[in-house]
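Tokenise the fold.
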Amino acid sequence: MSENVVCTGNVNAVKEVWEKRIQILNEDLKREKEFQQKLVRIWEERVSLTKLKEKVTRENGRVILKIEKEEWKTLPSSLLKLNQLQEWQLHRTGLLKIPEFIGRFQNLIVLDLSRNAISEIPRVIGLLTRLQKLILSYNKIKTVPKELSNCASLEKLELAVNREICDLPQELSNLLKLTHLDLSMNHFTAIPPAVLNMPALEWLDLGSNRLEQLPDTIERFVNFRDNPLKLEVTLPPSESTEEEEQELFGLQFMHTYIEESRRRADNEVNCLTTLPISINTDG
């Protein structure tokens, strides 16, 4: 009996020793694997940084990152080593997301990420207080964060052809320097109040949305064509492809719409004031 107890105790002791050795071995293998993965990441980051450096140019005194028709679905954190960049131009790269570290590029003046697959604008965008142009047309953005209103230097904002944007936060009326706003080909059913309260706005494109009517105080705005407006206003088709002439054509449409709206309102008032008054003389 005692011999069986001794044997069982020896077996358990040996088992514990081997289990401990296996545990240590597995931990060593795990650390080695993590170390190898870290080396791979470091190598990939260095390769990516080398590729990105090749895309940096200087134009008119600006340091610009320019990538066109080359796949970059994500941007590596090694890009932070190029924080002197003043302009990003990334087109048709398949970029899925604006990196959260974008807020650390304090020298950015232009951020042009049009024609990609971006689905949201990060709130840290508001840290770019020197940003003058933000171009995010032809993406998949659905909402605009209120933090964008902190981009105090912003003069041009383009969000055309995102399809799903239907409103803007009221805080964007604090963009005191914004003069150019393109919201065409989205899902707006009315002009956002924030837009009506932008003090410096000179040019607005809301073409190809779902607008049904325009406010009366709209003289400074430009393009509202291809919306289901309640009034039918037709102009001869514009044959020009020049941007300036297209803008003038949109302006002509806008003024014609407003004139037609006021003419109809005047006619309704005149009809009401000229209705015959019937006097009942019976009894």
Summary: Confidence is low (pLDDT under 50) at residues 277-283.
